[in-house]
Design brief:
Blueprint lengths: L3 H13 L10 E4 L2 E4 L2 E2 L3 E4 L10 H10 L4 E5 L2 H4 L15 H10 L3 E5 L30 H18 L10 E5 L11 H13 L6 E5 L3 H7 L5 E4 L5 H10 L5 E6 L17 H12 L4 E3 L14 E4 L2 E4 L18 H11 L20 E4 L1 E6 L8 E3 L14 E7 L6 E9 L1 E6 L2 E7 L6 E4 L8 E7 L15 E8 L2 E2 L3 E6 L3 H6 L14 E7 L7 E4 L5 E6 L2 E7 L6 E4 L9 E7 L8 E4 L4
Parallel strand pairs: 4-5, 4-11, 5-6, 6-7, 7-8, 8-9, 9-10, 10-11
Antiparallel strand pairs: 1-2, 2-3, 12-13, 14-32, 15-26, 16-25, 17-22, 17-25, 18-21, 18-23, 19-20, 19-22, 23-24, 26-31, 27-30, 27-32, 28-29, 28-31
Helix pairs in contact: 9-10
Length: about 600
Amino acid sequence: MKNPVNFLSAIILLSISMSSHAQRHSFGFKDREFILDGKPFQIISGEMHPARIPVEYWRHRIQMAKAMGCNTIAAYIFWNFHETKEGVFDFATTNHDIKKFIRIAQEEGMWVIIRPGPYVCAEWDFGGIPPYLLKIPDIKVRCMDPRYMNAVRRYISALAKEIKPLQITEGGPVLMLQIENEYGSFGNDRNYLEELKKCWLGEGITIPFYTADGPTPYMLEAGSIPGCASGLDSGSDQGCFETAYAINAGVPVFSSETYPGWLTHWGEEWQRPDTADLYKEVRFLMDSRKSFNLYVIHGGTNFGFTAGANSGGRGYEPDITSYDYDAPISEQGRPTQKYFALRTIIGSYLPQGKQLPEIPEPIPAIDIPEITMHPSASIWEHLKESISAVQPPSFEALDQNQGFMVYKTELIGHKSGRLKVTELHDYATVFLNGKFIGTMDRKSGIQEIDIPKSGVKNPVLELVVEGMGHINFGQEIIDRKGITDRVTLNGMTLMNWEISRLPMDDNFIASLTSGETKFNPDKPGIFFVGKFKPENVADTYIDLTGYQKGVVWVNGHNLGRYWNIGPQQRLYCPANWLRSGENNVLVFDLLQTVPIPLKGFKSEE
């Protein structure tokens, strides 16, 4: 019998010593083993998401994973990041360039696992599914609904063209591709899963496939496909593996998501789970030579409006902008104590005298002195042509997937009393005759407010509604934004609305007038602007302490949402979005009417 430690060490060294995978290799299954070039292979993978990392830092993050002992990179591909408009795909610009990411991994001597969905979860808006599908009133997703499947086939066809030449059989580093994601937690349509596999095969994807599910019999039965490897989220002990072997025999089983950290929602404490179970799980996986993927080794950032939301037993739970995840590699790319501990554990399986690669130098970060802010514009000055509707439509019905929307009507009949928005998605500021009177918040379950008497014959009601993250997990992922049902006053349904869209996209932000503005302090919805000149260009965190709820842009780049309920108060700004000389920062706040100076800091806390 071979020495298991030496055997495992040889597998680790196989990856570490490779400078490239230029020649063609073979990868497949033999009973319960992954086989690379005819020999058993243990996948030691770290997951990171190209869409959450500036393209300039892809190589650094991959090098960090390699230096921790990984031989593989797993990557979710977010469908809605690459098809923001129906039928229009972007696989070429900035961090949309999937081929570039895969090639960098190959240049760094790493193998790649692709996780393309079409549904991925990942705490990403709508789990990666394009929100434009929500314009279809009765759409069903993650099943054989022909309208959904037509869009899926278009996506698979487009993405397959990017992946096909990078498969291991074509001299590339891509070993495997995942079919859907944790489907056994959602549905049991095996026809759907088989159709997805058929679609990939039809597009020339011939590498092995796998599925990933929680380690329970019902999830694995509903979510696995015969002949495809079984991933466990997570595979923490031998019992989990035996459960999978019993349900899908004759294929490898691996821990497709071993969790070093966890996600955080707005209003929670930072999620920083105890590490004892993690280290125990990794030692078990290393000792037993089982393949695994650390979800995530580096989380990155939910820039713009990409953060998703959960909806479990505690109602609507929107995810914060940072996807730090308490991962081994921090949001800014620095090694944490967890990183060093895992590096020590994995490195201990190397043969005597062998070492892991040196840890890359950290990415520089800077403090930015106080930035003076002043009001520069108001949403009320920039309402575009309104749309009339008898009942208030959702964002998606008006071809808007993110941002804000203003709903306006006159009060006829009832002029005061109890206002209720049925199924508000997700947050609203409420105005009567141009004066702010309060807020509603789906997260807190507050969807009613008292409308005071005003003495005006036909009072004007306005609601500025923010759509936060589309739900990304579970049975409530059909999650349209805005006013998704109706508005009533004392039980009377309010009709005849004027709606103005505020998408807060690049075109909208570019259209804002500059300079100081006169504004009504009773009617918040203000943009604040400031200018700064850093001593040098490097990463920083913009501190929003003192502001209440909104969005921040630096030089036109959307850093994401902030909210004073925390825990996040600082938003990550990568160096590539700064410039030498003068820089601009723009803050839109739903509630703030007084400008507060900003600062930049080297770290998130």
